[in-house]
Write a structure and sequence with these properties.
359 residues; alpha/beta; Aspartate Aminotransferase, domain 1; 7-stranded mixed β-sheet; 3-stranded antiparallel β-sheet; 9 helices; 16% strand; globular; binds pyridoxal-5'-phosphate
């Protein structure tokens, strides 16, 4: 067996320990005589799996009792519609556009009501987080929407926007469980799990109970009402059962590591290795404002497209894969999620040093 260092933005690297355990349990999950893939989602065995996953997530994130945890499908992208369908009572919401995912959510919001762009960093190709301390948020906006970590551009909010009392909704797909959060500051925290938590196909939505109502926009499909899934404890229909099982294992892994404070420290150490190197390199440069740098996604360039391509190619041959930047940004991007070992980042930096010396 030979594993590479996988810097993919998503689906992304998972802890080896989790993959090994899943492999061991593949044919016979703990004496059930079957794989979790083959199991009824209404069975006792599966009920324990999903309940434990939820309990572990609640413990890790210290989720208050007045929040529901939903395991849904449709990707983070489906939430771009589900959020306005369920929350736009006044048919108005404020969006802060800090990258492509926020922009897509903003555009989707326009299908359902008045989506107001209250701030944006598009003027400088999303290379920074705008000042959100005193935004002009419409009085009757139902919520303020952010994408907390911008996967493509590599920026992250270091302080949450001042929503002036409005409900905060955050897409945390690419920073989920990367550090402790105060859940009570949000109305909804959600993310696709394929960046930092598990296999593609599961979206976790953490939602304050008062936002779960029957009062959705007319025509909202049953499957797109938060209430449908909240009332059924995420078992209204068949959930992405195997994916949730793997997420549960990742929660256990994080607990064993010591929880989110320890994970945050590890992530800061890893990111520092790479950013410190970029800051002193004559060849490679980070692409975003320093104070807004993401701990998870680190884009960088040489300034020369051919040299970028050469780097990506040689890196891949050396076992550092998926370093090519997003098609809209170019250059390189190293995604260094929770499961990327420190060793992977150290070796990448060594490789970059060597490349710089030789080119
Ligand atoms: C990947 C990503 C998405 C899109 O996720 P899908 O599950 O493919 O819909 C949305 N938001 C952010 C921040 C992402 O990183």
């Amino acid at each position: 067996m030979s594993r590479v260092y996988n810097f993919s933005a998503g689906p992304a690297v998972l802890p080896e320990e989790v993959l090994r355990e899943a492999a061991e349990e593949m044919m016979d999950y703990r004496g059930s005589g079957m794989s979790v893939m083959e199991m009824s989602h209404r069975s006792k065995v599966y009920d324990t799996i999903i309940k434990e996953a939820e309990a572990d997530l609640r413990e890790l994130m210290n989720i208050p009792d007045n929040y529901k945890v939903l395991f849904l499908q449709g990707g983070a992208s489906q939430q771009f519609a589900m959020i306005p369908m369920n929350l736009m009572k006044n048919k108005k919401a404020a969006y802060i556009v800090t990258g492509q995912w926020a922009k897509k959510a903003y555009q989707e919001g326009q299908l359902y009501g008045e989506a107001v762009k209250v701030a944006s960093s598009e003027d400088e190709t999303f290379s920074y987080i705008p000042d959100c301390s005193d935004l002009d948020i419409p009085e009757d906006a139902d919520y303020v929407y952010i994408c907390e970590n911008n996967t493509i551009y590599g920026t992250k909010y270091k302080t949450l926007p001042n929503t002036k009392g409005h409900t905060l909704v955050a897409d945390v797909s690419s920073c989920f469980l990367s550090e402790p959060v105060d859940v009570s500051k949000y109305g909804i925290i959600y993310g696709g799990v394929q960046k930092n938590i598990g296999p593609a196909g599961v979206v976790i939505v953490i939602i304050r109970e008062d936002l779960i109502t029957e009062d959705t926009l007319p025509g909202t499909p049953t499957m797109l009402k938060y209430k449908t899934h909240a009332d059924a404890d995420s078992l209204y229909n068949t959930p992405p059962a195997y994916g949730i099982y793997i997420c549960g294992k990742v929660f256990q892994w994080i607990k064993k590591m010591g929880g989110l404070s320890v994970i945050k420290q590890r992530n800061e150490d890893k990111a520092k290795l790479l950013y410190d190197f970029l800051d002193q390199s004559k060849m490679f440069k980070g692409t975003v404002r320093k104070e807004d740098r993401s701990l998870m996604n680190v884009p960088f360039v040489t300034g020369d497209k051919e040299l970028d391509a050469k780097f990506v190619k040689e890196a891949e041959a050396a076992g550092f894969v998926n370093l090519k930047g997003h098609r809209t940004v170019g250059g390189m991007r190293a995604s260094i999620y929770n499961a990327m070992p420190k060793e992977g980042v150290e070796k990448l930096v060594e490789f970059m040093k060597k490349f710089e010396e030789e080119n």
